[in-house]
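sry for the spam today, last one i promise. struct tokens for design, 87 residues
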């Protein structure tokens, strides 16, 4: 259903965010717990899509699909980077 480059993109973005969350937790210090939960959900969905797993049920396909993963991981990147690039 999705091409290999899309899966590689999901996996690389998930690995990048997971590394930031693991090795530099102060980047998340200013975020609320609800936003951190959404970012981690995006990372999880990125890993699920990146390794090539396609759930059969529509609900789980929407929860762990690439669209939700990319939106949540993109939001996470913007929220993490915002304090470092604000004027």
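last one done:
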């Amino acid at each position: 259903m999705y091409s290999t480059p899309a899966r590689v993109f999901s996996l690389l973005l998930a690995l990048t965010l997971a590394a930031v969350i693991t090795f530099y937790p102060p980047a998340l210090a200013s975020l609320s717990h609800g936003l951190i939960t959404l970012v981690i959900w995006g990372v999880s969905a990125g890993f699920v899509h990146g390794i090539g797993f396609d759930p059969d049920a529509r609900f789980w396909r929407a929860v762990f699909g690439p669209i939700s993963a990319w939106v949540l991981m993109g939001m996470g990147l913007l929220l993490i980077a915002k304090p470092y690039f604000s004027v």
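The longest helix spans residues 4-23. ok im logging off now
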